């Protein structure tokens, strides 16, 4: 799981909270995905954290929260639309070499 660097609001948050991350953190951007696609024969990406991130104050424990599970299912549908992928908080990337 890696941070994604394409959401303008999350990037603004990062500017104001530099001590919340390691110094070498590098949120993934389009150029990183292009590099991976040039190196690996298969790159699978799953996106996480859009509505679940926006409404995080409404649940304490995501594993037990019906609201979180509901929002997560909507996130999965939204991430099938390209523009919403750019608004995700993080990504899970699986690369395979042939």
Q: Any low-confidence stretches, pLDDT <50, length ≥5?
A: none
Radius of gyration: 15 Å
- What profile does the largest beta sheet have? 3 strands, antiparallel
Whole-number average pLDDT? 93
In DSSP terms (H or I, runs of 4 or more residues), the helix count works out at 5
Number of spatially distinct domains: 1
Strand order of the largest sheet: 1-3-2
Alpha-carbon distance between the termini? Answer: 23 Å
Give an account of the 3D structure.
Strands 1-3-2 form a 3-stranded antiparallel beta sheet. It has helices spanning 8-16, 30-39, 51-54, 66-78, 82-85, and strands spanning 2-3, 42-48, 90-96. The protein starts with a strand and ends with a strand. The chain has one domain (2-96). The chain is globular, with a radius of gyration of 15 Å. With 98 residues, the protein is α+β, with helices and mostly antiparallel strands. The model has no long low-confidence stretch (mean pLDDT 93).
